[in-house]
Specification:
mainly beta; Immunoglobulin-like; Jelly Rolls; 6 domains; six-stranded mixed sheet; 2 helices; 55 strands
């Protein structure tokens, strides 16, 4: 902008002062107020007073009194002559019965300055009760302008250095100012806001500002229309990259997929746009190698539809293309501190890129329990600093090898003992921060534990059948393995299920509805488990064995509960006892039904006297001292009943108590 001649500048200043003096001379009139019907003045508005002068952004307390009328809430409006131009407040509630006042802060008029203003106060509940103030003036106290002296057309400033902006003030444009840097009619950045209007300001140029010609704008904070532009000057800044001008799709640089990264420079106000062709159902990975730049990355199609946006120091970003076409990526500085240099590239990616793995390959055979080394090509750019490694069997993840490793190309691992021998293992490598970014090794072999002949038997749909009385079935549990067996249960029969192994697996019993069945008659030893179970209803039942890798045997025995009895060996037939004698009750549980029992004394008439009904274990022995309260009879017998099911019991021969 050209400098103003000093004489012209002073003359302009004097003319503005004269104009301001004329503008702010109040007008008065002795003629009656003809714009408002005086008979409607039921409210007396005495402040602002007639010919009062109010400044923009100042405040005044509006005051009125009620001329014998009531009203609690009021609406207050600004009128220009007889036209309502601005609502000051509504539903204002007064605090006294006759006098009322309202503090109007930040005085404003959409019509600007003038001398034909008045205030109207109206009762909210009754619009016929209102009153007007006398005419008053609203003026703008700010006038004049600025002149920027430095920088001028001869100025050359360098980024990163501190320089002084100098300016003159004309009239009274306000106490504080703001500066902005412009280039080609576009605001590039804010230099400062709320600065004291003292004619000088020290400014340190950002280190990432682009090389070129700029100019500065100064504005009044109190009255922004009062502003001025400085001369065009030179800033020695960051040099543009070789892809400029690439600020829009029409001038976008073409990016070749899977090629070396493009090196770009972002400066303030800059936008970089690259274009590329993408194919449907292909996965693309965007790499931004950041040096000192943080930017907003946007991907959009030819129609301008934004597909995603990312504000960050960009790690790799994965995108799945849904439609063939040309696509664009734009990069703009995230904030004033973050423009700079960056490199950008796009690569296509397949989840089954086995070439990434150096070991294992399809020729690899590992031995479970032996330490090995998983090796892959240096992939920090794609998989990030931290990675996860998994072991898969076919499509199923069976092991997490490591939840996080910062190793770049190898990891030591010992395949655990218990893995089944198979050739469908593979290793998956995964980006720790972006799990969608994965690769898989070739299928390879691990020699471990041989599976048993009953596999697969991992659920109720693939289970084998165990038959009562058959020789025990030999099973092998591998790592994370589970074995299911099934059998047909007959109502009221007793089943004895045995598992032998060291260590033995855990055993669960289920019905056809997959409900877990609990049996109180379970015997556990270091060598195995024996479950004695009374079947309540006919149906198919399932046994589940799981635990540490090991070999074990499982067998099933079925007993007819109507024929199965506890055999009571003592008391014997014709034994005799008297009160105070010790009677040893001895019985035999031929199948080891276990659990707890209840013991009763029964006479020949069927009367029952409890001997033990608490926590008597089914051990085969119970010592009973004959109480004195027992009647003398020769037709007593002992009955022992399983607490698990009353159909399992035994009765002794008759004996005497005398």
């Amino acid at each position: 902008m050209p400098n103003i001649n000093t004489k012209i500048y002073l003359l302009t200043f004097l003319l503005l002062l004269l104009l301001f003096a004329c503008q702010n001379t109040p007008t008065s009139s002795d003629s009656p107020d003809t714009t408002v019907d005086s008979t409607q003045k039921l409210i007396l508005v005495d402040v602002p007073a007639e010919n009062a002068i109010l400044d923009f952004d100042s405040s005044i307390i509006i005051h009125w009194t009620m001329n014998g009328h009531s009203g609690n809430k009021f609406n207050i409006h600004l009128f220009n002559e007889s036209t309502n131009i601005y609502t000051i407040t509504t539903d204002f509630q007064r605090s006294t019965s006759t006098n009322a006042r309202y503090n109007w802060t930040s005085i404003y008029s959409p019509l600007g300055t003038g001398s034909q203003y008045r205030i109207r106060v109206q009762v909210d509940e009754d619009s016929s009760i209102y009153g007007y103030s006398k005419l008053f003036t609203i003026r703008n106290p700010y006038f004049g302008g600025f002149r920027i002296n430095i920088p001028d057309t001869s100025t050359i400033w360098a980024f990163g250095n501190t320089y002084t902006i100098l300016w003159d003030t004309l009239g009274y444009p306000g106490n504080t100012v703001s500066f902005a840097l412009y280039q080609d009619d576009k605001s590039i950045l804010s230099i400062g806001k709320g600065l004291t209007n003292r004619g000088t300001y020290s400014w340190t140029l950002p280190t990432s500002i682009g090389d070129g010609k700029y100019y500065i704008k100064i504005s009044s904070d109190d009255y922004p229309p009062l502003s001025a532009y400085g001369d065009t000057f030179r800033i020695l800044g960051i040099q543009s990259d070789s892809f400029e001008t690439d600020n829009n799709p029409q001038h976008a640089s073409l990016l070749i997929l899977n090629s070396p990264p493009q090196r770009h420079t972002l400066s303030h106000g800059d936008t970089d746009v690259v274009s590329f062709f993408a194919q449907k159902d292909t996965q693309y990975v965007f790499f931004a190698s950041i040096e000192n730049c943080m930017s907003i990355l946007k991907l959009y199609d030819e129609a301008g539809t934004v597909l995603f946006s990312s504000n960050n120091r960009h790690p790799p970003i994965v995108w799945n293309c849904l439609k063939d076409g040309i696509y664009y990526i734009s990069m703009v500085p995230y904030e004033i501190e973050y423009p700079g240099i960056y490199s950008f590239s796009i690569k296509t990616h397949s989840h089954n890129n086995s070439d990434i793995f150096l070991s294992p390959t399809e020729e690899t055979t590992w031995i479970a329990g032996t330490s090995i080394s998983i090796q892959w090509a240096d992939s920090a750019a794609f998989y990030g600093v931290n990675k996860r490694l998994y072991c898969y069997s076919g499509q199923n993840r069976i092991l997490t090898i490591t939840g996080q490793t910062s190793n770049n190309n190898s990891y030591s691992w010992t395949p655990p003992v218990g893995l089944p021998t198979d050739s469908n293992y593979r290793i998956i490598i995964e980006n720790y921060d972006y799990p969608i970014m994965t690769d898989s090794s070739d299928f390879f072999t691990i020699k471990g534990v041989d599976r048993d002949v009953y596999e697969p038997d991992d659920d109720v749909t693939t289970t084998n059948t165990v038959i009562s009385g058959d020789n025990p079935q030999s099973h092998t549990l591998t790592l994370n393995d589970s074995d299911y067996c099934r059998f047909t249960g007959i109502s009221n029969n007793v089943y004895q299920i045995s598992i032998i192994g060291d260590p033995h697996p855990t055993l669960h019993l289920f019905n056809e509805n997959s409900s877990l069945i609990s049996s109180k008659n379970t015997i556990v030893t270091s060598q195995g488990i024996t479950v004695n179970w009374y079947c309540p209803t006919n149906g198919n039942y399932f046994l589940l064995a799981y635990g540490s890798p090991n070999s074990y045997q499982i067998s099933l025995q079925e007993y007819d509960s109507s024929a199965f009895r506890f055999i009571i060996n003592s008391p014997k037939e014709e034994d005799s006892y008297t009160d105070g004698d010790l009677c040893q009750i001895i019985w035999k549980d031929s199948i080891g039904f276990g659990g707890k029992v209840d013991i009763f004394l029964i006479n020949g008439e069927g009367s029952i006297f409890p001997i033990s009904q608490s926590n008597t274990l089914n051990t085969g022995l119970y010592d009973w001292t004959i109480p004195a309260t027992i009647a003398i009879r020769d037709d007593y017998s002992i009955k022992i009943i399983s607490q698990t099911n009353s159909n399992v019991f035994g009765v002794s021969p008759t004996f005497s108590i005398y």
